[in-house]
Design a protein that fits this description.
Helix content: 40-55%
Shape: globular
Strand order of the largest sheet: 1-3-2
Number of strands: 3
CATH topology: Arc Repressor Mutant, subunit A
Number of domains: 1
Strand content: 5-15%
Length: 122
Amino acid sequence: MSELNWIPRSIRKGIPKPIVVYDDSDNGKRSGYYNDGVITITDLDDDELIPGTIAHEYCHHLQYVRGINLPGSLIFDYDDYEQDIRSYFLLQPIEMEALLFSYKLSKNWLDEWWLKKLVLGS
């Protein structure tokens, strides 16, 4: 069974299927990333977060298919983690779209915390 079959067919219809790979060599810098038709999951420690990461990166796949220019990934120095995350999502509409997409399809504690506490400040 594909790692993507749980994403509603109405979203996947007519979209080329990306490849999903697992690679934990990222040393915890990010939970996953998307690059030219490949979703890479790098945080394999929390099974609850993997579907959300797949959803987030699948949104980037949809953006790529629609011709949206995706910038390279950002790695923060975490001097102020909360401000970094807030800026990351508020200043990059494609990242906010991916966060909301993930939150809608695969709600988990981390997306909820980022969205409610850090991004929206509630």
